[in-house]
Amino acid sequence: MANAAAKPHNGHGHGGHDHHDGHHDHHDQESMKTFGFWLFLITDVILFGTLFATFVVLRLSFDGGPTPGEMFKMPGVIAETFILLTSSFTSGIAVLQMHRGNKKGLIGWLGVTAVLGASFIFLEVYEFIELVHEGVTIGTSAYWSAFFTLVGTHGLHVSIGLVWMVALMIQLAKRGITPVTTRKVNIISLYWHFLDVVWIFVLTVVYLMGVM
């Protein structure tokens, strides 16, 4: 009888153990996904490093064509920089709201970040259109090939980040702040700060050195 009475207790204990294991497995999955993102970021660092190295090598290869000093309009570039730096700040506020458990604040600040990111892309596309309109294309010279490839690759990364951010905002609205959405918010914020750092290098190496 004592054994029979003890059996349900053992079964219950085993179920609790399973639940604990499931939670642990889920935590491990989240850790692996975060690790996967870090690997992606490392490959991105290598990609941008290669593009910057190529640009530096070709920085004087104008082939008799226009120079950056003649073509760059710095007020637009400064505006792009200000917008992107501000968006990095607002993405940081979004993470802060998440840690406070404020879903509405989190979605709101991600929204502000996305609008700023879209403004940045708009200005960059406008700059490219103006250059093409003035006869400067990716085929004009080795310098301009390197310029469009480097700056365009950064712009493409920002665009991917925007799509990702909007999808995450929809997911947050449906599911709220969960371990999965928390990881995703942390990752998108990290990705956004990374693009900010890359842009500072673009500003310095491409634009400031170009006009000097």
Q: Number of DSSP strands? A: 0
Gyration radius from CA atoms, angstroms = 24 Å
Instruction: Please tally the helical runs, counting DSSP H or I stretches of 4 or more residues.
Output: 6
Q: Main beta sheet, described?
A: none
Shape assignment: elongated
Q: What structural class is derived from the secondary structure elements?
A: mainly alpha
Helix content: over 70%
Which regions have little confidence, pLDDT < 50, spanning 5+ residues?
A: 1-14
Q: Report the span from N to C terminus.
A: 91 Å
Strand fraction band? under 5%
**H/E series:** HHHHHH
Return the average pLDDT rounded to an integer.
91
Plain-language structure description:
This protein has 6 helices and no strands. It is mostly helical and 212 residues long. Helix content is 87%, strand content 0%. Helix 3 packs antiparallel against helix 4 and helix 3 runs antiparallel to helix 6. The N terminus is likely disordered.
Keywords:
single chain; 212 residues; mainly alpha; 6 helices; elongated; disordered N terminus
Quick recap:
The chain is about 85% helix and about 0% strand.
Task: Summarize the topology.
Layout: H1 2-57, H2 68-71, H3 74-99, H4 103-133, H5 142-175, H6 179-211
Helix pairs in contact: 1-5, 1-6, 3-4, 3-6, 4-5, 5-6
